[in-house]
Each structure stands twice: as structure tokens, then as C-alpha cells.
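Colleagues,

For the teaching module next term, I've prepared a clean inverse folding example: a structure given as C-alpha cells, and then the sequence designed for it. I'd like students to try predicting residues themselves before seeing the answer, so please don't circulate the second half yet.
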């Protein structure tokens, strides 16, 4: 395993998650520097052997692979800083996790450079994430493979194009929030029927875990077949599902995903 020089510009939640994945899968092999405006917030990186700095340009100079971990609205000031630094970054590999930032927006600010876009989700904290990834201009197969390796500790990675990143941003990035909302509603219903808060949560947790495992362990069956196996005509589940149909559940989910994508496109227009 060859040692890499990696930087994170912005050391927040998602950068921490990716950093943890990298040090775990690559066994602390690499030299990593993290930059951010508040050094005291970067102590957890230092404890794991990383260098920390409040100077983004020091991190840029240090590394061959640069993760941009700042919020989308902070990106313009960071890119201006990189551009104005005089550092030759044309051979560095940038990896952006920012929603709404298309390759063209990076090229128009930085000039020709190598970019990979990724969109992780929060279950990556447990190594159970779904990350979408898309390579920009001049990124070669070796760099693509290296990025896939760096992300492997986060869970699964799906290679796609820029529209795919947007779609999976909604369907995998935002969707945990929809699943939490679904679970919150069921926990509330459990509590309403006399179970304690703790019991209700434990009941719905186990139901959700078991249901996800049923889907995973029955690859030869469509999910609809698993649903039908719980549903006898005229029975209790049947009545519940009929209410979901009456309340247009599928149409609602379609609108939910469309709303996410509309917002993504608004961000893209904002950061053009
Ligand atoms: N969280 C998610 O689930 C998720 C999923 C997919 C993609 N993303 C993307 O990941 C990126 C980061 O999100 P996050 O949730 O990790 O946000 P976050 O926790 O707020 O992290 C952002 C970090 O950027 C630092 N920062 C602010 N200004 C900076 C500057 N000028 N130079 C360098 N660092 C600076 C902040 O430092 P201070 O705190 O010290 O100000 C903070 O540590 C975003 O682009 C987001 O779209 C997040």
C-alpha cells in the first residue's frame, strides 16, 4: 500500500466521516492534513495522527489529494483563496462533496483541474453508507480506482454521472431523513397505544432492521412480493395499505423526490 498525502479543507461532520473511513481501511498508512478556521475543533483529527492547520493553502500545498469539505455556500471564498494562492494545483486531485456544485462551476473558478464529485450519506458513519461518485475531465482510471478505495470504508459507492449524483443525493443522501420521519411516525403511533417511549423506539427499531434484512436476504423476490406475503386480502395489513393508497403514498414520495431535485437545481443555478 503506497503512502498518500491527503488534505481536507474543512473538517466538519462529513470530512470526519470520510477521514475515519480512510484511516480505518488504509490502516493509518497515509499522511493527512486537515484545515479549518477553528483549530480547537480539529483536535479529534490530531488525536488520530493527522496534521491540522488553520491555513487552507498549507493544506493545499501539502497534499496530492484534496477533499473539499466546506458547506456549499462557503465554497466560493475557498475557491477564490485556492485560485489566488499561486500554487500549481493542476496535477492535484480534488474531491468535492458539495451539493449543487457542478464540475463546470469548479472549472470556471479554478481553470482546468481534476475533480471528482461524491455525495455520501450519513449511514457512512457506520460503514453502511451509499455514496454516489462521478469523475470530471482528465481524471484517469487509476485516480478513479484510488478514490473508490478511499471511500470503501464508508459502505457502497455507485459510479454515475452528474444528474445521477443529483438523483442519488435525493434518493440516498436525503432519504435517511424520510426513513427517520417514517420511523418517528410509527414510534408515535406505538406510544399512543400505551407503550413507553423507550419500548416504542425499540419495537420500531427492530421492525425496521428486520424489514431491511428481509429485503437484503430475499434478492430473488421483488420487494412487492415481500409486501404481498404480509398481506392477505381483506386482512388487517390489507386495510392499512388501502389507506396508504387512498392517501396517494407513491405520488407523495414522487413529489418528495421532485422537491429535493428542484432545490438541487436551484443551488446549481446559485453556484454557477
Ligand atoms: N452531512 C451530510 O450528511 C452530508 C452529506 C453529503 C454531502 N455533504 C456535504 O459535505 C459538505 C460539508 O458538510 P458538513 O455536514 O460536514 O458540514 P459541517 O459539519 O458544517 O462542516 C463544514 C466545515 O467547514 C469548515 N469551514 C468553514 N469555513 C471554512 C473555510 N473558509 N475554510 C476551511 N474550512 C471552513 C467548518 O469549520 P468551523 O466549524 O470551524 O466553522 C466546518 O468544520 C457540504 O458541502 C455538504 O453539502 C454533507
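(Answer key — instructors only)
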Amino acid at each position: 500500500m503506497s503512502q498518500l498525502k491527503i488534505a481536507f479543507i474543512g473538517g466538519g461532520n462529513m470530512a470526519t466521516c470520510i477521514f475515519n473511513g480512510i484511516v480505518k481501511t488504509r490502516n493509518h498508512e497515509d499522511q493527512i492534513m486537515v484545515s479549518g478556521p477553528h483549530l480547537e475543533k480539529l483536535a479529534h483529527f490530531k488525536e488520530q495522527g493527522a496534521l491540522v492547520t488553520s491555513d487552507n493553502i498549507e493544506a493545499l500545498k501539502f497534499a496530492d489529494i484534496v477533499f473539499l469539505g466546506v458547506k456549499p455556500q462557503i465554497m466560493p471564498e475557498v475557491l477564490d483563496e485556492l485560485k489566488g494562492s499561486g500554487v500549481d494545483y493542476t496535477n492535484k486531485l480534488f474531491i468535492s462533496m458539495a451539493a449543487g456544485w457542478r464540475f463546470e462551476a469548479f472549472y470556471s473558478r479554478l481553470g482546468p483541474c481534476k475533480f471528482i464529485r461524491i455525495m455520501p450519506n450519513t449511514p457512512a458513519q457506520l460503514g453502511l453508507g451509499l455514496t454516489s461518485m462521478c469523475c470530471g475531465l482528465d481524471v484517469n482510471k487509476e485516480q478513479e480506482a484510488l478514490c473508490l478505495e478511499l471511500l470503501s470504508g464508508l459502505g457502497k459507492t455507485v459510479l454515475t454521472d452528474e444528474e445521477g449524483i443529483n438523483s442519488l443525493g435525493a434518493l440516498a443522501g436525503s432519504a435517511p431523513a424520510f426513513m427517520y420521519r417514517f420511523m418517528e411516525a410509527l414510534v408515535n403511533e406505538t406510544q399512543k397505544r400505551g407503550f413507553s417511549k423507550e419500548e416504542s423506539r425499540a419495537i420500531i427499531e427492530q421492525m425496521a432492521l428486520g424489514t431491511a434484512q428481509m429485503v437484503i436476504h430475499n434478492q430473488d423476490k421483488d420487494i412487492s412480493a415481500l409486501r404481498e406475503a404480509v398481506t392477505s386480502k381483506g386482512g388487517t395489513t390489507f386495510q392499512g395499505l388501502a389507506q396508504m393508497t387512498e392517501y396517494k403514498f407513491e405520488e407523495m414520495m414522487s413529489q418528495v423526490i421532485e422537491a429535493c431535485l428542484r432545490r438541487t437545481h436551484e443551488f446549481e443555478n446559485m453556484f454557477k
